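Budget justification note: compute hours in this period were largely spent on complex prediction jobs such as the one shown. Inputs:
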Amino acid sequence: MKSALDTTRLTQNQVTIGISLTVLGVGMITLPREVFTAAGIASGWVSVLLTGGLAIGVMFLLITLNNRYPGLSYFQYNRLIVGSWIGGFLTLITTAYYITFAAFETRAMAELIQMFILDRTPVSFTMLIFIGTTVYLVLGGYSAIFRLFELYFPAIITFTLLIMILSANQFEINHIRPFFEGFTPIMKGMSATILSFVGIEIILFIQAHMRNPQRVKKAAVYGVAIPTLLYAIIVIMVGGIMGVGETMTLVYPLMELAKSIEIRNFFFERFETFFIPLWILSIFTTLAVVFYLAALGIKTIFKVKKETAVFSIIPLIYIIAMTPKNINEMFTMGVWVGYSMIVIGIAIPLTLLLVSLVRGQRQ
Amino acid sequence: MRAICILIVAVFVLTGCWDHREIEELGIITGVAIDKPEDSAQSHMLTVTNQYVLPQSISSQVKSGTSGSKPYVNETVTAPSILQTIREQSKFVSRPPYYYHLKTVVISKELAETTDLLKLTYFFNRDHEIRRSVQVFISEEEAETLFNIAPEEDKVPSIYLDKITHNYTTKTAEMAPTISLGDISKYFSHQKSFIIPFASLKENAIYINGGVIVNADSKKVVGVLSKDETRAFNWINERSQGGVIEVFGVDEGQQHPFTFEIKKMSSKVTPNYQNDILTYDIHLSFQGKLGEDWSYDSDQFNQEYVEKQEKAIEERIQSIVVNSIEKAQKEHKVDYYELMEPFRINYTKEWYKIKDDWNQFFTKANFNVDVSVLVEHYQDVGRKLPFKP
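Corresponding output:
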């Protein structure tokens, strides 16, 4: 009966939810602007679906790599493939990437809170509280993180869909017509959506902890499909309500959508207030995962205790988060995190897969 | 040691609200009126009036039932930019301005005719306190005068103005559709001309009569719509499901007016673009009831008579719509009907070529207007007896 009560291993649902909530982060709120700016026309929402399909393909390749080394996570098996020196170096840059990623999420959250709720509270203070909460969660290990996610997941999905339903009366189909104007704009739109799928590479680390690793493909497909559909709905709704041109001018399009919901003469007159905690939650989930992975990287490289690893990256995250001077630098940072993910999270593991295939390794 | 640590952390985490604001101490602003300064030396500036509501005053009136002092205060400031007028107020208003409950923005016609409206409303769209759903009006008089009346039903003029607009969809088609700050920004982003409700003052009440046209190219108010033009706009765009049509009789002399009340209407606009000639087929269909009839000859139990009346209504609507479109093409030279939308969707390639001078293109378009009216019933009484006086 031990396996049934085994609470430290991840179930299929936990992996699905874990991937979904890691992918859903800052991108959710800025995606419509990025897609429409890149595509220029309304059919940009197709790009989201196509990129989602691409992401599932990438997931399968990463899983193929994982399956060659069952029970081991990326940090453990990369040195088996390319030796401990290069492997150690790969672990180091991956850790650096996750620290930067965590810093970006922290900063984005702090900017949002300052802009919409607490405009006189110093950013540094909100960030410290936020990091503190994350540290507490990360010290509980991956099983605690993913179990908490199970609790958050319904709330995040329901609230996002609720915003869509409440604003549906403003939807104008003409805004997103004509539906098809050739493939070029859709391809252009895809380049912008790739950055919103940052986080899919966590499968490299969590598959090793699954209770039933043979179900990983199903979990991964659902894990990517849920954010893809949610993104597509968000882009279609924002496009249909704001129009393509207007969306390009908005900093946080989804936030503006929530602000345009009008329930007259009622307590809900300021409905967006309910939406901000939702977004904070979805950023928090992303932060928790990347914080955990950054700590894991430190622990692997320097062979230190869990607590030492977690506490040692707090100042790093804080300093990097404070580096962007203004909101544009913060967005640039987000773009660079996205590009690094393509190299560190996809290109390097796929190269490792090739090396592993050529060397005919198998554990 | 551990307890001390926890205490120190608790002191930081659990205390204080950096951003607390007492609700009684806030200056809740429900309306903003923007005018041109009277002093011509300040012509590059704006005169902004903020309407602060006084919650205590409203609640005391509800309790005692007496109408004492006005439940609002207007503060007028002149400065070069809107944000500056708000900061300027801090010098003499004791409460910090709070814009979360802003309901209406009124701009005087004089200002709107000379100032770029995108620039003027840009601040409101940027500020995160102000919602996109704030209603916008253009006033015939100085905008400030609209905020100085004492309406009977709703004590605060800016809230009263917001509530009148709720009537428009079902009760009358002669009001321009409501438009919010977000809508205005949307129209400008998509290079579409549009109309804003036109408010004017009559004694102690604000009337919303028709609308004013904003040209997407100049971004200024370029004309005022008459009652009929507003109706034609509402019909073509399916923006109103109500209102009445007065017809002056079925016979040649047209002496016996009757009134048709619209219950439901729908519109279908189809563009046709061939050999560089753009033709729109506009089909409007109405369903409703005969509400009033002055003729002694009328006999709605007779289907033939009802069909005659339907025909008269069709002719009346057609003439309203055709005249309005002609006026838009010849006089205003602006496509405020958003007729570019069906064209853009159906002829996307052609649209990209001409989109920058769409208004010019619109003035050359042809229109086929086709109206069908269905009288569903005629209320409780169908004819008058005796037939002849």
